[in-house]
Amino acid sequence: MQNKYMKQVFLFIGEEEFLIKEKIKEWKKLSVDKYGEFNVTYASFDLPDRDVSGYLNQRCTEIASEILTPSFFGDKRVIFIENFPPKLTRPIEDSQRFFMRILSSLKELPEENVVIISSFLPDKRTKVYKELTKDYKTEIFNKFDNRELCEWILRRVAKYGGKMLPSASGFLAEYCAGDLYKIDQDIKKLVDYKGVEPISERDIESLCIKTSMVADFALANSMSDANVQKILTILHTELNAGSVPQMILFKDIAPTLRQLLQVIYAVEKDKDPKAIGMNPWVFNRWKSVSKKFTLNEIKEAYLKILEIDEGMKTGKIETSLNDYRMFMLFIEKFFWEMFGAGFKKA
Predict the structure, then answer these.
(1) What interhelical angle do 95-106 and 52-68 show, nearest 10?
(2) Beta-strand relationship, 163-164 and 198-199
(3) Do 157 and 191 touch, CB atoms closer than 8 A?
(4) How many CA atoms lie within 13 A of 282 on its CB side?
(5) Which of 97, 280, 339, 345 is within CB 3.0–4.6 Å of 226 for a Cys-Cys bond?
(6) Do 34 and 134 belong to one domain?
(7) Structural domain total, the chain
(8) Angle at 188 between CA 184 and CA 190, to 5 degrees
(9) Residue 158 contacts by C-beta under 8 Å, 6 or more apart in sequence?
(10) pLDDT digit string (tens) for 284-317?
């Protein structure tokens, strides 16, 4: 039997927090504009360090009461409930019973009340989640794929009154490693600077700060193409910009290999990005690269990097201030072997 309050309760969930918050922000503004601040109520779960059970007991009772309270003036009343059900780091006795108070109150919702519930990365195994998604209208906000992200960037630029070259949208997505919060801030900055002139890749390089993963992506793209010359150009650029060999090894190359290991493992074990704690957009970028190697090949490559580091510490690989030619010879040998017969099967 269909819940008769289905049209009065809305659920916004998913793995992209920025999009969920944007939706909530939009609905809050519309609600206040239409019904006035007095008829709009906000509630959330901010778990304390201690007495979590006592907090949940009290908070669920308070929110259930808010849901059941009708509008005093016969107008619509809108209740926003964020972070429900809350993510618990450890099992809390009676927590599900407390949460069910809120679900029970939704089934007795006054006709003039509307409830909007939001949850970032909710636990889909819980009874509360299953009940909510079964009974009420649910909108899911998942991570974009590459095409969707580029289209979203172009729409976002237009929203702020600017223009962007289509090729620059993909460049900005990579520059920010798919982080919508950073992309949004950079778009505002770029539109303020360019006005109605189209934003280019050069503008992004000039005005925006790279995320820590951009160097890794540049290496990943080059490795995907087995383009050793491009890889070496990237690393030479890093050295010329002031990096030292140890930074090249453990800021650029080692993280690249570690992420490849994670993705290869996940693909082989049929695990999703969440299972290995990786951003889905980052995971998808690495996936094509990971297909070129096995776990053992990347493990062997990682050991070779450690050997180069040890060689510099013991003097087998000579380096001096601003003279890293010997180091780069070993790095060049490393990458030719990685994409040749040394690490890969013939």
Answers:
(1) 10
(2) parallel
(3) yes
(4) 24
(5) 339
(6) yes
(7) 3
(8) 110
(9) none
(10) 777 777 777 888 888 888 888 889 988 888 888 8
